[in-house]
Amino acid sequence: MAGIDLTMIWAAIIGFAVMAYVVMDGFDLGIGILFPTLAVGAERDQAMNSIAPVWDGNETWLVMGGGGLLAAFPLAYAIILPATYPLMIAMLLGLVFRGVAFEFRWRDSRHRALWDFAFWLGSLVAAFAQGVTLGAILQGIHVENDAYAGGWLDWLSPFSVLTGISVVVGYGLLGATWLIWKTEGMTQYRARGAAFWLGAGTLVALAAVSVATPFLDYDYWRRWFTMPNVLATSQVPLLVAICAATFFWSLKRRWERLPFLMALALFLLSFVGLGISIYPYAVPRAVTIWDAAAPPASQVFMLAGALVIIPLILAYTGWAYWVFRGKVGSAGYH
User: Fold this and answer.
1) Average pLDDT over residues 273-298
2) Per the CB 3.0–4.6 Å rule, which of 39, 51, 99, 291 could disulfide with 28?
């Protein structure tokens, strides 16, 4: 495949998978984070029913992103995983607790309070671990001889904690706006109130991370603020401001779908900003995507499978969302 940069194609595929996971699993993690704010009984049942048909499929993208990173960029995988082992363990345990709680709260009603707590805690831990992982990667990983050379807790810093909290708040916003769209009655009313404050919190968190990131390394500063880069990068905060204004306007007008779409747009713009900061690195300031890439023959072999699998995933995901496109009551969709 002469003339085609397979490494760039695979970087785009991995980026798409990660973004799809954040968007799709973000709102159901957000519902778990918001769970204590919902009344025991019909409200919590309605929130659960709103994600019951899709939450398992949403995590497909996490598997694809992690597995794709291992296959397409094995060196990056071999560096990032040892640097973030505690976070990966915490995230997976959180997802396990959350998944078990999701099933057992319906089958073991005598201990429903325990399963509700596990659902909330698992969602919170998984979201926070994902955010801290992002911060740990952005702040830099100590690499020597193409291997991780740091300590067990190098990932822990004020910046990584900030990104962890930011992701928790952002996922909460996605969860609240999803409930505005998919539920009715008191559940929707509570979600609408939560969405206002979580929207404000997300913007504050986004601003804080955006201000802090360029000070992590001059390379980040150069990408954002030197000419002519700034002519392009300045469009990102401008679009964030437009989406934020549209979000609060749609909340005030009591629209149901637009707040969720604007929350997704804020995440998409954040992802674009992340790409601007770290490109062309797979491990920022240490290993580029080309250094980390698998051999071209391996990339071609995997690409043949990806061209079949990704459309299938998109098709069954789209079909599931279409079938369950209506509102959900406490007893299920209608």
Assistant:
1) 86
2) 51
